[in-house]
Amino acid sequence: MAKGKFITLEGGEGAGKSTQARLLAAWLGARGIDAVVTREPGGSPLGESIRGLLLSSQNGPIDPLTEALLFNGARRDHVLRLIKPALDAGRWVICDRYADSTRAYQGAGGQLDAAIVERLEHWVTADARPDLTLILDLPEADGLARAAARHAGTESLGGRDRFEAADLAFHLRLRLMFLRIARSEPARCAIVNAEPAVEEVSAAICAVVSERLGL
Ligand code: Z5A
Predict the structure, then answer these.
(1) What share of the chain in percent tops pLDDT 70?
(2) N or C: lower Cβ tally within 10 Å for the chain?
């Protein structure tokens, strides 16, 4: 059986990754392609438990190396339990965030040594490298406003998680890193303008998937 394709969606807060992951799965489904939608951190029972620890504002500040180890621990479990078995069974996998988020958040945002980020990524993702990464690009203030509007008043920090609560300079470093990744790996990555309406972004994503993955 042919292996499935592995598509990741990346970008800053509120760029529309979760929304677009669902729409892409439906578009693929209409073409007879069975896709599993998953997310990081999370996607497996252990990954979801680690997600709770990482996003909670209850644990205080976490240093970038500890964060990178936790995100990669969750990722390794996710790869072994869900991503690789699904791809091996011929299913397509659409993942809302993956290793580029560690490069951006812990690397550029948290200023963790790039060599450490790279080494961890190599160990953890050797069995599952994306065929296509869609980088949803949006001015950081716009993405934060979308995310804030969605969960206003739901938790401490005014509904924001630890990352959303970081300052705009942090979020600008993320955006620039995602764009840098896309430009340095053009065969794997495509930048998608995430500013237009949901349907327009979705159409752009489907066009890229069609062209890059031969649908
Ligand atoms: N993180 C990390 O630091 N290191 C890592 O290695 C990994 C992750 C893997 C996960 O949180 C956090 O973990 C994340 C990075 C860090 N930081 N934060 N926060 P999460 O999964 O809860 O958050 P997120 O990944 O940033 O997702 P999000 O905030 O839910 O955004 P999104 O998935 O990109 O967007 P959305 O949920 O589809 O849409 C957000 C809102 O905007 C919603 O109300 C939509 O209806 C609306 N929306 C979506 N598209 C549009 C358009 N086109 N126009 C207008 N409104 C729109």
Answers:
(1) 95
(2) N
